[in-house]
Request: fold
Amino acid sequence: MTALVIGGSGTLGWYLKESLTKAGIAYLAPSSSELDIASDSSVSNFFLANKSFDTIYLLAAETNVDLCETNPESGYQINVLGTERIAKQAVQSGSYLVYISTSGVFGGGSQNKWRYCELDAPSPANLYGTSKLFGEQSIIRICKNYFIVRSSWMIGGGPSRDKKFLSKIIPMLRENKDLTVVHDKIGSLTYAKDLADFLVEAYYKKYTNITHFASENYASRYDIVKYVGALLKSTSKIKGIDSTQFPLPAPRPMSEALYSITNLTKNKKWEEIIEDYMQEWR
Ligand SMILES: NC(=O)c1ccc[n+]([C@@H]2O[C@H](COP(=O)([O-])OP(=O)(O)OC[C@H]3O[C@@H](n4cnc5c(N)ncnc54)[C@H](OP(=O)(O)O)[C@@H]3O)[C@@H](O)[C@H]2O)c1
Reply:
């Protein structure tokens, strides 16, 4: 039997491939041109040619939050219809489906808690969060054998593959450049490497339903930059600003912090996650 990794070229996908290899689990990780979840024919042709997966990891998504807002069709085609297509294939092939979702399903409308657990009712603040929530709902509606893992502010990739927040900040801190960073929005952190190991655990234990996987505490981007700056012994001056001074196409919730009440995960503090991740930047 083989696992299928959809989205294996992404931040989380690289670590998942490493963790599966380390665990001795055989897997297939097609590129998005070999298996394009936004295309009916690509999905049906792929599953006609490749049948027996015991576990399908659906990591693939349109993850650009602002693009989902300015071009809603991209999020809809990939995160909603793409997820639905894979859910149907998982049922047909009798596979266990593991879907990665996001803290972005919370914090919209009048919802303004500091952090969210699995029992909080979703209420997305933007179209990315809405599209991922529709993805979750498709899976729950279509599949019996599924596991949804929500994570938040994922970091990973190291100097060669990281294209997110920290990859822009670390070089500036190393050059002791001054920085202005948003301090009025919070989130919990997920090190993609830790999540990948948890996804391998799920392969064996066949966890079901929904769990949250993120740091046990939360921080603002400002807190994170200060902490990384101290680790790098940077002399950069770091100034906190309100998010209103840094407008983005997609509204962000006040909090993207998660906690878990499922007892499936033993999560670290965000400071420890940063320290672990910074080992990749040595
Ligand atoms: N990043 C975060 O902070 C965060 C937080 C919470 C949850 N998540 C969720 O975690 C999962 C993994 O995130 P990530 O940061 O690793 O993503 P990522 O680095 O942006 O990678 C996205 C992956 O999806 C693939 N993909 C995109 N469109 C596709 C399509 N039409 N068909 C097949 N594959 C397609 C990409 O393939 P190519 O680029 O090779 O085409 C890539 O492998 C996502 O589901 C995301 O929603 C992310």
Remarks:
- Residues 72-92 form the longest helix (21 residues).
- The first strand starts at residue 2 and ends at 6.
